[in-house]
TrEMBL record:
Gene3D superfamilies: 3.40.50.2020, Winged helix-like DNA-binding domain superfamily/Winged helix DNA-binding domain. It comes from Salimicrobium halophilum. It comes from the Bacteria. Pfam families: Pribosyltran, PuR_N. SUPFAM superfamilies: PRTase-like, Winged helix' DNA-binding domain. Belongs to the purine/pyrimidine phosphoribosyltransferase family. PurR subfamily. This is Purine operon repressor, PurR. The keyword Cell membrane does not apply. GO terms for biological process: negative regulation of DNA-templated transcription; negative regulation of purine nucleobase metabolic process. Residues 2-71 form the Bacterial purine repressor N-terminal domain. GO terms for molecular function: DNA binding. Residues 109-251 form the Phosphoribosyltransferase domain. Keywords: DNA-binding, Transcription, Transcription regulation.
Length: 273
């Protein structure tokens, strides 16, 4: 196989397996090439990844070593995307009662969701995440996108148990927006005890739902390794109960009467700088 074709094939294989150890002997056998040639190819791929700001190849020494693709997307990679996202969220046609914004169309765009997943995965790539958790339903596509780029499973908490999921663990929590007591359940088989979990949600005001997920994870002796939200908005009437999180966008001002929306980038890009 010519080097140009081998490079394309190797790059595709590596990108499809983020954070997965791939041995050099595998590539040698797969492409029937010398180890020195494979090493040169991997150096080229690593340099190109770094130049484009889409991650890098981590070398693992030893007999059982090899390389891992670390999907660490740069702030420069996401700047134009976040600016465009803020512009879309500023559209007054998105206004909903209670200061909420309609975002279902964005969460239904595969390319948009995939890019969001890349940026969140980059923010948490060094946290040794074992699973990504969200609550049904709007956060599910985001959670799967992040999990894809971290190469970990998705855990979905629900507000009511399903017979097909077997025995569950449930907790009660206070909803930050309605101040009502709600229930959140998670099947016992979905998460191993002691897991390091990344929580992903689409929207956060006071943070009651995220706080509920944190309480639920305590029942599994799991550790919250990171929290990511697509959009955060200040709730003047409620004190925020979550303080350590990463946000892609920040909704500064929403006025139903004057039809005004002010949105700016969140703190995620600063974390990637």
């Amino acid at each position: 196989m010519k080097r140009s074709k081998r490079l394309v094939s190797m790059t595709r294989y590596i990108i499809e397996r983020p954070r997965t150890l791939i041995s050099l002997p595998f590539f040698v056998e797969e492409y029937q090439s010398a180890k020195s040639s494979i090493s040169e190819d991997l150096t080229i791929i690593d340099e190109r990844f770094r130049q484009e700001g889409v991650g890098y190849l981590e070398s693992i020494a030893g007999a059982s070593g090899g390389i891992k693709y670390i999907p660490a997307y740069s702030a420069e990679y996401g700047e134009s995307f976040v600016e465009e996202l803020c512009e879309k969220l500023s559209d007054t046609e998105r206004l909903l009662p209670g200061g909420y914004l309609f975002m279902s169309d964005l969460l239904g765009e595969p390319r948009t969701v995939d890019t969001i997943g890349k940026l969140f995965a980059s923010a948490f790539v060094d946290k040794d995440i074992d699973a990504v958790m969200t609550v049904a339903t709007k956060g599910i596509p985001l959670a799967y996108a992040v999990a894809t780029h971290l190469n970990v499973p998705v855990v979905i908490a629900r507000r009511d148990p399903k017979v097909t999921e077997g025995s569950t663990v449930s907790i009660n929590y206070v909803s930050g927006s309605t101040r009502k007591i709600q229930t959140m359940v998670l099947t016992k088989r979905s998460l191993e005890e002691g897991s390091r979990v990344c929580i992903i949600d689409d929207f956060m005001k006071a943070g009651g739902t995220i706080n509920g997920m944190k309480s639920l994870l305590k029942e599994f002796d799991a550790e919250v390794a990171g929290i990511g939200v697509l959009a955060e908005a200040e709730d003047e009437e409620e004190e925020r109960v979550v303080d350590d999180y990463v946000s892609l966008t920040q909704i500064l001002h929403v006025d139903d009467r004057t039809k005004e929306i002010e949105v700016q980038p969140g703190n995620l890009l600063r974390r990637l700088s």
